[in-house]
Amino acid sequence: MSYIKNIIKIEVTEAENLKSVIFPARHLCILPQNVDFRQIQVKNPSSCEISDKIESKVRIFTSKLTFKSCEQIDSDGIPLAYRITTADGCRYLIGRDHRPFSVLTRSELMPSSHTDSSLITYTVTWSDVIKPLQIIE
Question: Which of 106, 130, 101, 91 is nearest to 18 (CA)?
Answer without folding.
Answer: 101
